[in-house]
DNA sequence: TTCTCAACTTAGGATTGGCGGA
DNA sequence: TCCGCCAATCCTAAGTTGAGAA
């Protein structure tokens, strides 16, 4: 492991050690183990050479794919061969065969018809099937098209808009856009100049000639009645009766059932975002030059439908037409349209639990694991390249090292000025984003990074680097203005081409995946202690997760209610402490009592008191763990890394190894997304 | 070689709804 | 049973990547 990586781990470790020490105070051993055991891990695998599972027949939609599968499974159950180990550890590339087959889980077998509500068909284990290799994404695709935003409902006439103090009736078009602004009135950005300017410009485009002539100054517009009206409406919605709420829920469910699924290659799959984005005012992140612009309503005429030729094509709403219907099975989207703010294309795609997303995800982690094998070689190479005569090569070598060691850096594409907020990544760093300190706080060759990254989240870090890197950076900064590119001979395209040469499939973002996953694995090893109880182990997991989130700079705004909720928790802890000292006092007097009387009854009392103390201590410890966890998490978002960077098999293996129910780590949605990992990883999985 | 665009992943904030405690 | 809180879910913006046009 290179010095830089060492540094990185030192940084992380020292940090976690700190946490750990703090934590030790409330460590407690006698925690009852959660009995619930994961049901996974009993699936059998069949001979890889068996090709029967190939999805070759042309799909005749409609027919119950489930039934079909069941039969397949029955017929195959006997011949299963165990090659599980190989699959998980030796690693058969996901792109290759091995078609193990699916077996019913214990649960399915035993509680056969328990659930009256038709228990969902067996979960399809797509990861046990052959993959497409030729860029084809599916052979059959049928869906119902998108759900459009509800049409605009004009305001009741009593709700007035005032211009320059006088009530004014707006045309429906102008009124609708006005309501978008009114709904955001409480928000800070309606006070921002750019937001107001953009809004006003776009609003005027929707006005009639007369309105345009009258309304010339946003400052003279009074939206408060509208705003009040919407607030009242949302209150009313909250106050609705159970029945009304139930009705809405049912309607949503109906919509979901109808539009929320598609049929792709024999299987019913969940769609991620089947609703078209409603019109509104664009809210970019950070200092976005387009904030406040009108995001227009999407009509059927804007929509491109993608489905297979032999499917039943979705119908556009009566009286309308789709922009286009195409049958492109080299892409995964079902519906697309072009958005008017940036002119980019938006898509309706499948849920992360779908085969098409899952396979890709799995593949991503396999690529990262391959990187693990050649990381040393790559390091050796870039260290060599630091000395190169060619500036281009040196710059590349420095970015390579940044990516490998300071993984929080994204690739950093160039961005069009004036189109988006001014943010940067590795390749697009400017001179003004770093400071060099030959010496800083007792360390040599320190680089200070300070810039806005994706979503305008600030990245700030001080990192000691090797002398050569430092000298190179000095060189790159020579004779440049603050707003000049630091790596002027480099962009993401060049960088990725070079990475591709180092390893097949290697791109800048693979480093993030690799670093995140390897860090989790190593931190879990480091932090998990056998004699800890489950809450303590989960705290360790969260800390490992947190180390990754810090590395990836996954921040969040502290929740608005953070202070309060912390206080509440603290109050609970204090109350619990009082309770504890009371209980202890009682125990003491019971003991004293027992000493004098020496009868069975008092002995029993002592025992009871002792148990009470123990129980309260346990509860207290749980609360304190919770407080620690929450405090440490104040500004850190764990979700992003959990969902996108951490090989789920590491977590699953950890759960299995320590007898932690996987439900404690992954919620329902996450379990669906990572079903493949939960099914295939056993406790000795190594990333 | 550079530019543009399509397709897909990654991201944080807003909203919702379910659950535990009063 | 009601209410407040928080986790889950929804939403959609903002990245990365690579292909193909200019």
From TrEMBL:
Keywords: Biological rhythms, Coiled coil, DNA-binding, Isomerase, Nucleus, Signal, Topoisomerase. The keyword Acyltransferase does not apply. Releases the supercoiling and torsional tension of DNA introduced during the DNA replication and transcription by transiently cleaving and rejoining one strand of the DNA duplex. Introduces a single-strand break via transesterification at the specific target site 5'-[CT]CCTTp site in duplex DNA. The scissile phosphodiester is attacked by the catalytic tyrosine of the enzyme, resulting in the formation of a DNA-(3'-phosphotyrosyl)-enzyme intermediate and the expulsion of a 5'-OH DNA strand. The free DNA strand then undergoes passage around the unbroken strand thus removing DNA supercoils. Residues 231-258, 566-633 form a coiled coil. It catalyses: ATP-independent breakage of single-stranded DNA, followed by passage and rejoining. Pfam families: Topo_C_assoc, Topoisom_I, Topoisom_I_N. CDD domains: Topo_IB_C, Topoisomer_IB_N_htopoI_like. Residues 1-16 form the signal peptide. It comes from Oryzias sinensis. Residues 281-659 form the DNA topoisomerase I eukaryotic-type domain. It comes from the Eukaryota. One of its GO terms (cellular component) is nucleolus. GO terms for biological process: chromosome segregation; DNA replication; DNA topological change; rhythmic process. This is DNA topoisomerase I. The keyword Coiled coil applies. GO terms for molecular function: DNA binding; DNA topoisomerase type I (single strand cut, ATP-independent) activity. Its EC number is 5.6.2.1. Residues 31-89, 96-116 have a biased composition (Basic and acidic residues). Residues 18-116 are annotated as: Disordered. Belongs to the type IB topoisomerase family. It is found in: Nucleus. The active site is at residue 645.
């Amino acid at each position: 492991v290179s010095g830089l990586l060492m540094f990185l781990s030192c940084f992380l470790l020292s940090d976690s050690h700190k946490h750990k020490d703090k934590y030790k105070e409330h460590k407690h051993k006698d925690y009852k183990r959660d009995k619930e055991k994961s049901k996974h891990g009993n699936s059998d695998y069949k001979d890889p050479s068996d090709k029967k599972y190939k999805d070759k027949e042309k799909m005749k939609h409609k027919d119950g794919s489930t039934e079909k599968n069941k039969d397949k499974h029955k017929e195959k159950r006997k011949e299963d061969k165990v090659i599980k180990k190989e699959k998980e550890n030796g690693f058969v590339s996901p792109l290759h065969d091995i078609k193990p087959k699916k077996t019913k889980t214990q649960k399915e077998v035993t509680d056969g018809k328990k659930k009256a509500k038709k228990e969902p068909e067996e979960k399809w284990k797509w990861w046990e099937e052959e993959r497409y290799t030729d860029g084809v994404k599916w052979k059959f695709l049928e869906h119902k098209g998108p759900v459009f935003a509800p049409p605009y409902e004009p305001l009741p006439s009593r709700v007035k808009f005032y211009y320059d103090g006088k009530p004014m009736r707006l045309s429906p078009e102008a009124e609708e856009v006005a309501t978008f602004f009114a709904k955001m009135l409480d928000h800070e950005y309606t006070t921002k100049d750019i937001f107001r300017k953009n809004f006003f410009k776009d609003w005027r485009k929707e006005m009639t000639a007369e309105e345009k002539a009258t309304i010339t100054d946003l400052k003279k517009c009074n939206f408060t009645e509208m705003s009040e009206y919407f607030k009242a409406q949302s209150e009313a919605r909250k106050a609705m009766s159970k029945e009304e709420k139930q009705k809405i829920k049912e309607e949503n469910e109906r919509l979901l059932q109808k539009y929320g699924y598609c049929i792709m290659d024999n299987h019913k799959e969940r769609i991620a975002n089947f609703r078209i984005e409603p019109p509104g005012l664009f809210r970019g992140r950070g200092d976005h030059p387009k904030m406040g612009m009108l995001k227009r309503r999407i009509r059927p005429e804007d929509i491109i439908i993608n489905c297979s030729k032999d499917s039943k094509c979705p119908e556009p709403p009566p009286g309308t037409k789709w922009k286009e219907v195409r049958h492109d099975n080299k892409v995964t989207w079902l519906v697309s349209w072009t958005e008017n703010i940036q002119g980019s294309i938006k898509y309706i795609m499948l849920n992360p639990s779908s085969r098409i997303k899952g396979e890709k995800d799995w593949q991503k982690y396999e690529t990262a694991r391959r990187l693990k094998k050649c990381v040393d070689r790559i390091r050796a190479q870039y260290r060599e390249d630091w000395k190169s005569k060619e500036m281009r090569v040196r710059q590349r070598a420095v970015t390579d090292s940044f990516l490998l060691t300071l993984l929080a850096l994204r690739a950093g594409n160039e961005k069009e000025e004036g189109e988006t907020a001014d943010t940067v990544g590795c390749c697009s760093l400017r001179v003004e984003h770093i400071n060099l300190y030959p010496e800083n706080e007792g360390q040599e060759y320190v680089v200070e990074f300070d810039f806005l990254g994706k979503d305008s989240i600030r990245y700030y870090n001080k990192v000691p680097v090797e002398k050569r890197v430092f000298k190179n950076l000095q060189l790159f900064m020579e004779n440049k203005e603050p707003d000049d590119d630091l790596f002027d001979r480099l962009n993401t395209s060049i960088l990725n081409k070079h990475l591709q040469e180092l390893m097949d499939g290697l791109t800048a973002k693979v480093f993030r995946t690799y670093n995140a996953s390897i860090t989790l694995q190593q931190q879990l090893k480091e932090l998990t202690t056998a004699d800890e109880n489950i809450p303590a182990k989960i705290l360790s997991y969260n800390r490992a997760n947190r180390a990754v989130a810090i590395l990836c700079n996954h921040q969040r705004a502290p929740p608005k209610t953070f202070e309060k909720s912390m206080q509440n928790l603290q109050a609970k802890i204090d109350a619990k402490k009082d309770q504890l000292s009371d209980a202890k006092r009682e125990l003491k007097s019971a003991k004293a009592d027992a000493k004098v009387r020496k009868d069975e009854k008092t002995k029993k009392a002592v025992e009871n008191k002792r148990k009470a103390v123990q129980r309260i201590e346990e509860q207290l410890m749980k609360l304190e763990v919770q407080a620690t966890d929450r405090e440490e998490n104040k500004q850190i978002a764990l979700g992003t890394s959990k969902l996108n960077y951490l090989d789920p098999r590491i977590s699953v293996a950890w759960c299995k190894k320590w007898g932690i129910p996987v439900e404690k780590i992954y919620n329902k949605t996450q379990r669906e997304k990572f079903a493949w990992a939960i099914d295939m990883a056993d406790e000795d999985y190594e990333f």
